[in-house]
Design goal:
The protein contains 10 helices and 20 strands. The protein is α/β, with parallel strands linked by helices and 396 residues long. The chain has 3 domains: 59 residues, PUA domain (Archaeosine Trna-guanine Transglycosylase, Chain: A, domain 4, Roll), CATH 2.30.130.10; 106 residues, 2-Layer Sandwich (Transcription Regulator spoIIAA); 194 residues, 3-Layer(aba) Sandwich (Rossmann fold), CATH 3.40.50.150.
Length: 396
């Protein structure tokens, strides 16, 4: 497959994706997972990747070495290297919730592996890697001896959209309990490794949760989009004066209560409010209720049905959320804002903070930032991997 000079340069510089539009008008008919060599205009080797028939990302580059095959040996070595990296830079045995393989950044595009205690959850983001599954699971079992491995399929089936999985598939080992308790720092969380999507605890926000704990002391904390209450739990552990959690899903609050109980706290210590964030904030303004710290980590997207109102898009609506949050934040209070969508750059994120502050008639000063933790390595030339934005700002 021949690439244009600019695309070839980008791949050589470290970007592992070749988009479908970069392939030109010539139709391609290989089977999903076919190994394809890419060359530049001069016919010089650029890289070797696996073909995806369904995705906008037509080719995921595994190697830039012409002598390296994409096979079981490559998968085994890269799994070994990924685990070795985490053992070098993390308290590997103590950390029960962490990312073991970070897809492209660990040389295994489209493959994510996370550990929850003795159980592993594999996320496959492309049909191109299906033929590597056995090699992947063999390598994981050899390296870690997990009790079980579960698989989440995040890609479409051949020929179109597939029905959502009712649950993650058990591919190795014995079934896990539906509610599995794992520890992070000195706190305990209930996770579901059998879920088709989220287990209920996001490893990428670990440093952000620690920041919440650090800054929460003696403050009245409002946790928006509170989900299963991890932020609320860290705020409570940080001796917050009070914690108010807002989420549209009642079942998320139920899990949050169980997380509080698992960590030895009163499950009713936070005020749990079921409702749309914007509507709840408007009610707070009407009643004159304010907070010393507001934490917001919204989803990238939410449908109108899920919200009970208009649809939500982080890229489009983030500044509106900032403005509404500042309306209930006292002067000198802390706004902690996060975004995990790679479609919003750091520059766009900070512009949203500035625009939201302007709408609210105030200004923000960023006093703390938290990055992805070491188990989420990134590689130069692939900015999409460095997707997390996390800022602690004070309202002037």
């Amino acid at each position: 497959m021949r690439l244009s000079p600019d695309v070839a340069h980008r791949v050589r510089a470290g970007h592992p994706w070749v988009y479908r539009e970069a392939l030109g008008p010539r139709p391609l008919t290989p089977e999903p997972g076919t190994s394809i060599d890419i060359v530049d205009d001069d016919g010089e080797f650029v890289g070797r990747g696996l073909y995806d028939i369904d995705s906008a990302i037509a080719l995921r580059v595994f190697t830039r070495n012409p002598d390296t095959a994409i096979d079981a040996a490559l998968v085994t070595e890269r799994v070994r290297a990924a685990i070795a990296l985490r053992k070098r830079f993390l308290d590997f045995e103590k950390l029960e919730c962490l990312r073991l393989v970070n897809a492209e950044s660990d040389g295994l595009p489209g493959i994510v592996v996370e550990r929850y205690g003795d159980y592993l959850v594999v996320q496959l983001f492309t049909s191109a890697v299906v033929n590597l599954r056995d090699a992947l699971y063999n390598a994981l079992e050899s390296q870690l001896k997990p009790k079980a491995i579960y698989e989440q399929r995040r890609h479409r089936s051949l020929g179109g959209d597939a029905p959502r999985q009712a649950g993650a598939d058990l591919v190795r080992g014995n079934p896990a309990p539906v509610e599995l308790e794992v520890a992070e720092d000195d706190l305990n969380f209930i996770v579901d490794v059998t879920s088709p999507l989220s287990t209920g605890l996001f490893a990428d926000l670990r440093e952000g949760r620690r920041a919440v704990r650090y800054w929460a002391r003696s403050r009245r904390v409002l946790n928006l989009f509170s989900y299963t209450g991890a932020i609320s739990l860290y705020a409570n552990a940080g001796d917050a004066a009070e914690v108010c959690a807002v989420d549209v899903a009642a079942k998320a609050h139920a899990r949050a209560r169980r997380n509080f109980a698992a960590s030895g706290f009163d499950p009713e210590k936070p005020e749990h409010i079921v409702g749309d964030t914007f509507k709840v904030l408007a009610r707070f303004v009407e009643r004159g209720r304010t907070f010393d710290m507001v934490v917001l980590d919204p989803p990238a997207f939410a449908s109108a049905a899920a919200r009970g109102g208009k649809p939500w898009s982080a890229v489009r609506d983030y500044s509106e959320l900032i403005s509404a949050s500042l309306d209930v934040l006292v002067p000198g209070g802390l706004l902690i804002a996060a975004s995990s969508t790679h479609k919003m750059s750091l520059g766009d994120f900070e512009l949203a903070l500035a625009d939201g502050a302007e709408r609210a008639g105030t200004q923000l000063q960023i006093i703390d930032r938290r990055p992805l933790p070491p188990d989420f390595p990134t590689v130069p030339g692939f900015p999409e991997a460095n997707y997390l934005k996390f800022a602690v700002a004070t309202r002037t």
